[in-house]
Design a protein that fits this description.
about 290 residues, 8-stranded mixed sheet
Amino acid sequence: HVRFLADDALEGRGTPGRGLDTAALYLETELRLAGLRPGLPDGYRQWYRIGEYAPDPARVSVQIAGRTLNRSSYVFLNFGRDPAPGPIELELVHAGLGVVAEEKKVNHLDGLDLRGKAVLARKGADWALDPQAVFGPDRGMGKLLASTARGAQLLIYASPDLANAPADAEAAFFAQMQHVPVGFVREPGLGPGGQPASALNPVLVVTPQALAEALGAPLEKLPRGPLGKKVTIRIDAVVRDGRAANVLGRIEGSDPARRDEWIVLTAHYDHLGAHPVPAGQDGVWNGADDNAS
C-alpha cells in the first residue's frame, strides 16, 4: 500500500488533485476486496468542495498594531483558511511561551480566553530545546495545535531562528512549508459557529525584533493576556475550485441490540502535493509516513 500511495505517479496526493482521486479509487477498491460494505447509500465516496491556491504568486500583507511588517521578517503558513471572506483580523492575546505539556504539568494557556483570538507565543520552553526537533508541545506546531484546540484562530510564533535554516530544523520546516499549495474546504456550515472547517489554523512566524517594533516593547516585557491590539492579514490569491472525497467503508455488527451504535476509525490519505522545480529535480512530496502508511 505504501509503495503505491507514495509513488511519484500520485503527485504527492495534493488536495484537490488527480493523484488524490487515484488514491481514493485505490482505497475504495481495497475496501471492496476486504468485504466492507459502502459507508454511504450511494457508494464509498463522500464528495466535498475544495478550494486551492499556490502560495508563491499570492500576495500577502501583515499588519500588527497598525504597522505593516516587512516581508522578510515573517513566514505565513495558511492552513485551511479561504481568502474569499476577506482579511483575517483578530485581537492579540499574549501567551508567553505558549507550551501545553501535560506530562510535565505545564500549561501556559491556562486561564486565557483564546476563542476567536490570535495567540502570540515565543519560541522556547521551560527546558532546553532540541535543535533538530520540529514537532512536540514545545515547538511551533505543538503550540499551534494547543491553541487551536482552545478556540484560537491564529498562532503568531516569535522565532529568532527564522532565517537560520537549515541549521535549525524547525526553521527549515517553515521555509519548505511556505511553498506548499494551500487547500481549504468550501462546504457551507461545516465549521463551528461559522468558523473555517479545518483541524489547524494559520500560523504566522515572525522575528521577535519585528514584533517588538510593532508592539512597542520587547516580547518578554509584554503582559500575559489580551494586548488590546490587532493583527490583520490580507491574502490576494487566485483560487482554483475542485473536489475531493472521503472514502467510507462499513462493517456491520452482529448484535441487533446495538445496531445503532457506531465505532468510527479514521485516517487521512492526502499529503502536500507537488511544487514546480527546475528540470532534473524532485518536486513531489511523496508522503510515505504522512499518511500513506
